[in-house]
Amino acid sequence: MTIYGTESARPAVDTVARAAETPDVALPYAELGMNDEEFARVQRILGRRPTSAELAIYSVMWSEHCSYKSSRVHLRKFGDKAPHSDALLVGMGENAGVVDVGNGWAVTFKIESHNHPSYVEPYQGAATGVGGIVRDILSMGARPVAVMDSLRFGAPDASDTRRVLDGVVRGVGGYGNCLGLPNIGGEVVFDPCYGANPLVNALCVGVLKPEGIKRATAPGPGNQVILFGAGTGPDGIGGASVLASATFDEASHQKRPSVQVGDPFMEKLLTECCMEIFAEDLVVGIQDLGAAGVSCATTELAAAGTGGMDVNLDLVPLRDPTLRPEEILMSESQERMMAVVEPAKVARFLELCKRWDVPATVIGTVTDTGRLRMTWRGETIVDIPPGTAADEGPVYERPYERPADLDALQADSPDKLPRPSTPEQLRDTVMWLAGSPNLADKSFVTSQYDKYVQGNTVLAMPDDAGVIRIGDGPQGIALATDGNGRYTRLDPYAGAQLALSEAYRNVATTGARPLAVTNCLNFGSPEDPGVMWQFARAVEGLADACQALGVPVTGGNVSFYNQTGTTPINPTPVIGVLGVHDDVTRRVQISFNVEGMSLLLLGETRPEFGGSEWANVVFRHLGGLPPRPDLAAEAALASVLVGAAREGLLDAAHDLSDGGLSQALLESCLRGGLGCTVTLPGDPFVELFSESVARAVVAVHPEREARVAALCEAARVPVRRLGVVGGDSFTVEGQFSIPLTELREVYQGALPSLFG
Amino acid sequence: MTARVGVITFPGSLDDRDAARAVRLADAEPVPLWHAATDLSEVDAVILPGGFSYGDYLRAGAIARFAPLMERLADAARGGMPVLGICNGFQVLCESHLLPGALTRNASLHFVCRAQRLRIENAKTDWTRAYEEGQEVVIPVKNIDGCFIADPETLEELESSGRVVARYVDVNPNGSLNDIAGICNEAGNVVGLMPHPEHAVESLTGPSSEGLGFFVSVVQRMVSA
Amino acid sequence: MARFVVEVMLKPEILDSQGQAVARALPRLGFEGVTGVRQGKRFEIELEGPADEAATERVRKMAETLLANPVIETFELRAE
Amino acid sequence: MARFVVEVMLKPEILDSQGQAVARALPRLGFEGVTGVRQGKRFEIELEGPADEAATERVRKMAETLLANPVIETFELRAE
Ligand SMILES: Nc1ncnc2c1ncn2[C@@H]1O[C@H](COP(=O)(O)OP(=O)(O)O)[C@@H](O)[C@H]1O
Ligand SMILES: [Mg+2]
Questions:
Q1: A309 C-alpha vs ligand 1 centroid, how far in Å?
Q2: Looking at the domain that runs over B4-224, which CATH code has it been given?
Q3: Is A84 labeled as catalytic in the residue annotation?
Q4: Backbone angles phi, psi at A144, to 5 degrees
Q5: Nearest-CA residue for atom 22 of ligand 1
Q6: Ordered domains of chain A (ranges, CATH)
Q7: Measured between alpha carbons, how far is B82 from B97 in angstroms, rounded to an integer?
């Protein structure tokens, strides 16, 4: 038998036996992103060189994406500093965390990035980003009930931004709409730093009964391993073909494309099929196939279970019969899941799959050998201890160092920028900000998403948080995502806290009690010590803030290498906060609906303009320090907002964030179609545009003002009467009065005129 | 006797459970119907819900039309059973030739989701008798293939015989000819509607509860029949 | 193995919003002098057996009943 | 007046979910023996001027930049 010969039509197989006999065969591990030390480690683990299939498994499982090798030492802080929470049913480490929301219901939620693919092929990149996070939620045993999308693009007028935005938004909508998941919120942010590094972070939330939680584990020797869902094709396996072509069959294996293509219809079938499978309690373990596909599912299931698994790769249904085993192992084909099923339940499992037109195939068996063994065409090509691939990947303590330019950046305070002072200048600034892409109305994007499907959407964009009713009510959940790359660039520790602060505040503004956190950490290259410092500081900041606010991190995702050449993006932690509503009928909206309501401002305003939208929009200035996080004030504000909502005191509430008071007021006016008149005692510029934290504006019936004031006093939240709702203009006494029609035109016109 | 209203689930149907909720809120009994079934379970009326049956691949509604249950439904519809197709259901009814015309890509080429004002133009159909003619209601639309078109003769015939059931007011979200949001067959028992009344049955979760009338209408008809 | 191509186009009197969008985009990209764009669908169908009359008839039936909607579309069919 | 046809198909290795949905539907409609369906797009482009080399080149450029997405699709072009 020739080793890599071409004497027969059948290409050679790199078997375990062969690997033991031919230690010196050169394998293209470097092309697969593995360094010498990592490769040597694989050899030590196996006591021989890996087969090409084994190398495929280790290289993907030990990639940054799957192993978190650069971030793991830092992420531990989320666990170390986790506040105690009775609500936490499943913490970090599973596909997604699960929290108890009361009344016999649990909720699982997670946010994940699909940044790089969304730049290469925006539609498919974003679509498969949504598809991937939905399968994570599904694999916890939950019914997915909503999605959110947090998006960042390059400069709005840059030539490529239109392509990326158009494709990404169509992709998020195309997939989520077709899947029947309401989109209940997100972000759209523009900044030149994201030009060639758009950020597409997708969040999914699902609902389940605590007793229905599923885990990614393969216990019980003799249990069957079933691969179900779409066929396996050459999606996302650029790397694998290096292996196949370099080692074997040079001519017939061109480098394969690395684009993954989504099929939302298949995912919908998969979802309904899983719901019936869960209802009949047919699985002992289940795992979605995401990055690293079959490699990841088999190693992780086996490692978390009895420890062994035999898999016959010939049984994997292929969309392309020419795929080699390495490619099957690394394929990132979408809409696939793997289940572990007791033999007696296999027939019923397959029957339900058939009912939903979901292909399903038994491909393996759980064993107690402690080894993951795979055969292909009758030969053993993989024989490894699965835990070494799944859990024992390399861990790096990458060097980090405060970026050299940070001192200068922080010293470059916005205080010296000329401020508007006359009524005309203030008015112009209000208009200018309202029509700037980051602050303008996002309906151009959000109207492409179905927010009504499933019939449980209580609040969605443009309210501060999405709110979903659970079961038949009255309980429900609220979710918001926030992140600010400019703040985080100026101070990563504070920036991460500010992101959490804002999401926490958004959730509380609707009247929900914040409960738990998910996060997506978007950064540059971990090999850049400056970036690594930003990362470490951000994680530290977030962990400390979660502890202070009493909300644990339940899961998340890290995306590194978001940079162009040596220029990283602004570090952008995107934080999702989940809150609970005991009664969703008490939810509070942002819109000013009733004439004559009193407007109160809660919280303290300081002159804080570092990283502000004002400095950004008017001067393209980024410097100084971001607003000071004040977690105690944030918690106090939330307690007032939640308490007031529970008592039904609030007719409207809107938190203050990007763009400050001016922006919050005009959004509430435009949403409800009613104007307002306010009086500003202090420096009107600071009052209108500062981005100090822990503030919200509320509209209350004059008779209830005293009660709200009492709640504020009890919680030590400063409160001040601002003015009154009514009329058809946004009026600041003694300064300006802008007709809502005029405001509406700039606010709503901005994105359509750029991208319509 | 409570009316039994069937809701068909095709692979890819999305608003089936919402339609069932709306039926329940109208004090009728929703009966889930599976696309591959061969009988209508003795229901009094049928709703074809919104969604993306078969992913809307090929054309919206094109594949669902061939479901085994659709043959039964076509017979029943011709026999006078009330049938309401919402969004994707409307598309299926057109593809099945139970209603004339076709629904094509929105003029904007975008998916559009908005709270939409409609005018009920025909309050005599089995699904609109709870409304007044000319009454305006706000109901969500959400679709990408919602642009109703028909040849000029068909259009003329629909208009002159009062078979335009609902029309968009203020904004035409998809470019439909004559702002048409919904139509019916000659007998008025089969109605196709692009907007989603089942998402306007509770003010907590919809822009209004003004969509409930469609479901109440069919229940009233059952009672009066 | 028989291979057929079915081309489905909107009837000329039906508004082709996708084609028009392409036509509008072209000048923005610097392509002048385009007087019309129409967008349709193209299917490649593979059948077992020979590409004979009977096979052609079968594909024609598929096109009529499924691939094209006769209310708004026309199709052309050819063996490859 | 020059008339061109541009046919855009997904690359063979890219999942063609639409074609697959049609392929799966056909047997249920009584069409057996279909071994593959692929769905793509077809554009008819009309240009001012003669259908010469230069016109072909312009249409080729349009196809590359707008009509087809080179990451996942290939196209063919012919004068009619
Ligand atoms: N990509 C998006 N997808 C869904 N909703 C979005 C998206 N971008 C913004 N939104 C929604 O638009 C509204 C305004 O966004 P933003 O001003 O960023 O909110 P906030 O400042 O309260 O965080 C919010 O309801 C937000 O959820
Ligand atoms: Mg907010």
A1: 45
A2: 3.40.50.880
A3: no
A4: -65, 135
A5: A464
A6: 7-69+214-390 (3.90.650.10)
A7: 16
Instruction: Residue A109: name the closest of A136, A82, A132 by CA.
Output: A136
pLDDT attached to residue A526 = 95
Report d(CA A308, CA A221) in Å as an integer: 8
Domain residues of chain B, as ranges? 4-224
Cα separations in angstroms, A139 against A276, A289, A362, A363, A622: 13, 10, 18, 19, 42
Q: Is D40 on the interface with B (CB under 8 A)?
A: no
Residue D26 to residue C66, Cβ atoms within 8 A: yes
Q: Do the chains D and A touch each other, judged by at least 3 C-beta pairs below 8 angstroms?
A: yes
Distance CA C37, CA A104 (A): 58
Domain of residue D43 covers 2-79
Binding region of A: 68, 110, 112-116, 135-136, 260, 288, 332-334, 519, 556-557, 559
Q: Which candidate in A74, A114, A253, A581 is catalytic?
A: A114
Q: A437 is written with which tokens?
A: 């892409």
> Contact C35/D58, CB-based, under 8 Å?
no
Output the six-digit token pair for A596: 């004559």
Residue-level pLDDT at B225:
63
Q: How many domains does chain D have?
A: 1
State the pLDDT at residue D1: 85
Residue C73 sits at the chain D interface (C-beta within 8 Å): no
Residues in chain A with CB shorter than 8 Å from the CB of D18 are: none
Report pLDDT digits (tens) over C8-51: 999 998 889 999 999 998 998 889 889 999 999 999 999 999 98
Q: Is B39 exposed, middle or buried (0-12, 13-18, 19+ CB in 10 A)?
A: exposed
Q: Are strands A563-564 and A183-190 parallel, antiparallel or unpaired?
A: unpaired
Which amino acid is it at A293?
G
Residue A260, pLDDT score: 87
Is the Cβ–Cβ distance between A582 and A685 less than 8 Å? no
| CB B111 within 8 Å of CB A173 | yes
Place B64 in a pLDDT band, splitting at 50, 70 and 90.
very high
**In contact, C59 and C47? CB cutoff 8 Å:** yes
Question: pTM for the full model?
Answer: 0.94
Distance of CA A753 to the CA centre of its chain: 29
* Identified catalytic residue from B35, B87, B147, B210: B87
User: The CATH number of the domain where C40 resides is what?
Assistant: 3.30.1280.10
Question: Which residues, 6+ apart, have CB-to-CB distance to A639 below 8 Å?
Answer: A715
B146 and C CB contact within 8 Å: no
pLDDT mean values, one per 10 residues, chain A (756 residues): 37 86 90 93 96 94 91 93 89 87 95 94 95 96 98 95 96 97 98 97 97 93 97 79 49 56 95 97 94 92 95 95 91 95 98 95 97 96 96 93 96 96 97 98 98 97 97 94 98 98 98 97 96 98 97 94 94 98 97 97 97 97 98 98 98 98 98 97 96 98 97 98 98 98 98 94
Active site residue A74: no
Give how far Cα A463 sits from Cα of A508, A579, A594, Å.
Answer: 12, 15, 17
What pLDDT, on a 0 to 100 scale, did the predictor assign at position A256? 53
Tell me, yes or no, whether chains C and A touch by having 3 or more C-beta pairs under 8 A: no
Token readout for A10 is 């059948």
Q: Shortest CB distance from A259 goes to which of D21, D24, D72?
A: D72
Chain C: partners with 3+ C-beta pairs within 8 Å? B, D
Question: How far is Cα D22 from Cα A579, in angstroms, rounded to an integer?
Answer: 43
Helices A423-434 and A660-672 sit at what angle, rounded to 10 degrees? 70
Which of D11, D15, D24 is closest, CB to CB, to A319? D15
Q: Which residue has the tokens 């980090």?
A: A400
∠ at Cα B26 (B23, B32), nearest 5°?
15
Distance of alpha carbon C72 from alpha carbon B151, whole angstroms? 9
Would you say B46 and B40 are in contact if contact means Cβ atoms under 8 Å apart?
A: yes
